[in-house]
Write a structure and sequence with these properties.
heterodimer, A: mainly alpha, MetI-like fold, globular, B: mainly alpha, two-stranded antiparallel sheet, two-stranded antiparallel ribbon
């Protein structure tokens, strides 16, 4: 019996699901080239490379980018650039901290015995079993109550007042990212025998040298994929950011959400297309890393 | 002190785990306790919270109302109970549809040649990693009256010489259901694929040798062995669907209000965090109860971590 034999039904169903997955993305990308500001119907591609083009029946100013008009427009949009910058600052900072403390916790949970171990392990499952909105409003309440109290007690005024911003978003992102890093690194550590570390210790290496020369190189691929997972979770997050951001800390998902409730020009599609492209490259990179790792293992 | 640390394995472990555990304690557990405390409170007209021990918010949530039309002091107002029920049934429907769509695709990927397998899996990851908000927006473009779906049907009707009135699809419960299915489909595909891929080929051979036909092999071998993946996928789909508010916000307009929308509005528009906190805790309890009974029946899938 051929193990790769699939019935026509399975092939047809799989094809339909793939169409369902990709049709919205194709439409989204197509409309980023739309020669219509209203963006309701697809009016064809922009063909003129000039400063003034005809759009929706009247002459309008344009970036001389031809079909890529909306992409050039996007590059000139300061709000988008600021949101992109915020998103990256938050994602990088949160990933570095989450990966560091998450990896430490994974080592502790996998290689040590200590009193609060069951509790430490249990807290990791909270973000999986509780809806994000419940975490979001809880964190919002925590920040608003403690900030209100501290501002009062310390008589903070003006710019010194504690308020929601990039800091609160980053701190909250770390909270939902850490469990994923820890669980990924823990899974990696599970696959390795403790005897490697014990052998290093027997040969006279102290704990630090053992960690640096044996444990760390072993778990590095796990740490990297955990970090990449955490990074994408942060880039993608809407709910937690929605409740913890303040003036000046708008991220891209929050910015796009704001636009969807007002006017939607093909600029949003251009932004989405760039995003999809970046994600595509990131996923290819991740796959490449994993493949390389598997080759080394074998 | 340092000497003791060097000798005590337990102290080293505690110190290594401490940053993470403390972080999660402060930002996940304390907020949950605060939410509980606030839900028993009452709000002042300016949106502040007075800490009392009052069950008013819960009573209101389950239908007790003092704003009655026929002059009675109190009556049953099903508004919030309906919202809770709507969210619960939408989550069940979404999960059921997602399982039916994800299973054949996962099966297709798991039975592909190893080299193709990665490509097919990769094709599932791309939409998953495209931003959540962007994916809802894409459906908005498809479902609009002047959108892509109506345009394609209209074009087909035109070719056949038929008259076609564009369908009103956006801002309906159906649009919300489609959006939810689209958002969470990949979360079901990955765990089901993981458990299908683990099944040893010799089991299929054994089933065939013993005379089982394709259907019997599927029902007696494939399906039972892939249940851990279905369970893990269900947890990964059901819980977020219960709490999501963007999909209903954008694809449902003001027509489809779910518990997520209710909570969000209490915190941002209605300025009643006490009622929002009560709703949020009820949401949490509902998801935990469903997850508990579901996992007790089918076991907690370890595939959850793999996905």
């Amino acid at each position: 019996m051929n193990p790769h034999r699939r019935s026509p039904f399975v092939i047809a169903a799989a094809t339909m699901v793939y169409i369902f997955l990709y049709a919205p993305i194709v439409v989204l990308i197509l409309y980023s080239f739309n020669a219509s500001r209203a963006n309701v119907k697809f009016e064809g591609f922009i063909t003129q490379f000039s400063d003034r083009i005809e759009m929706d029946g009247s002459m309008v100013e344009a970036s001389p980018c031809g079909p890529f008009h909306w992409y050039c427009d996007l590059a000139k949009n300061d709000d988008v650039m600021e949101a992109a910058q915020n998103t990256l600052i938050i994602a990088f900072t949160a990933t570095i901290i989450a990966t560091t403390i998450g990896t430490m916790a994974a080592i502790a949970l996998q290689r040590y015995d200590f009193k609060i171990k069951p509790f430490s392990q249990l807290t990791l499952y909270i973000p999986i079993v509780i809806p994000e909105i419940v975490m979001g409003i809880g964190i919002l309440t925590l920040f608003s109550q403690t900030f209100g109290w501290l501002n009062n007690v310390l008589h903070l005024a003006g710019d010194a007042r504690l308020a929601l911003g990039i800091g609160t978003v980053t701190v909250s992102h770390i909270a939902f990212m850490v469990p994923f890093v820890t669980l990924v690194v823990q899974a990696r550590l599970q696959g390795f025998d403790k005897s490697f570390e014990e052998a290093a210790m027997d040969l006279g290496a102290n704990e630090w040298v053992t960690f640096r020369r044996v444990t760390f190189p072993m778990i590095l691929p796990g740490v990297l994929s955990g970090a990449l997972l955490a990074f994408t979770l942060s880039l993608d997050d809407f709910v937690i950011t929605f409740f913890t951001n303040g003036p000046g800390s708008t991220t891209l998902p929050i910015y796009v959400y704001g636009l969807l409730r007002r006017i939607i020009t093909p600029q949003v599609n251009a932004l989405s297309t760039v995003w999809i492209l970046v994600v595509f490259i990131a996923v290819v990179l991740l796959q490449w890393l994993q493949n390389r790792e598997e080759k080394i293992k074998h | 002190m340092l000497q003791r640390l060097r000798e005590s394995k337990s102290m080293q472990g505690t110190l290594l785990a401490l940053p993470t555990t403390a972080w999660l304690f402060v930002l996940l557990i304390i907020p949950l306790i605060l939410t509980l405390v606030v839900s028993f409170g009452q709000r002042t007209p300016d949106g502040n919270v007075v800490y009392t021990f009052s069950l008013d918010n819960y009573i209101r949530l389950f239908g007790y109302s003092t704003d009655c039309s026929d002059g009675q002091a109190s009556c049953f107002d099903p508004l919030y109970v309906n919202i809770l029920w709507r969210s619960l049934s939408l989550a069940f429907n979404t999960t059921a549809i997602v399982i039916m769509m994800a299973y054949p695709l996962s099966y297709f990927i798991a039975r592909a040649q190893p080299k193709q397998r990665n490509v097919f899996l990769f094709m599932v990851l791309i939409p998953l990693w495209t931003n959540f908000v962007i994916r809802v927006y894409a459906w908005m473009m498809l479902l609009r009256k002047e959108g892509a779906i109506n345009a394609i049907i209209g074009w087909a009707a035109h070719l056949l010489g038929l008259h076609f009135t564009p369908l009103e699809m956006l801002y309906t419960p159906g649009a919300v259901l489609v959006g939810m299915v689209y958002e969470f489909l990949p979360f079901m595909i990955l765990p089901i694929y993981t458990s299908l891929e683990k099944i040893d080929n010799s089991l299929y051979e054994a089933a065939a040798d013993l005379g089982a036909n394709a259907l019997r092999t599927f029902l007696r071998v494939t399906l039972p062995l892939s249940m851990p993946g279905v369970v893990a996928g269900t947890i990964l789909v059901f819980i977020p669907v219960m709490g999501t508010f963007i999909v209903s916000d954008i694809l449902g307009g003001r027509q489809v209000i779910l518990v997520g929308n209710l909570i969000q509005r209490q915190f941002l528009d209605a300025r009643d965090p006490t009622f929002g906190s009560a709703a949020s805790l009820i949401l949490m309890v509902m998801t935990l109860i469903v997850t508990y009974f579901y996992t007790r029946k089918f076991g907690f899938g370890e595939e959850i971590v793999v996905a």
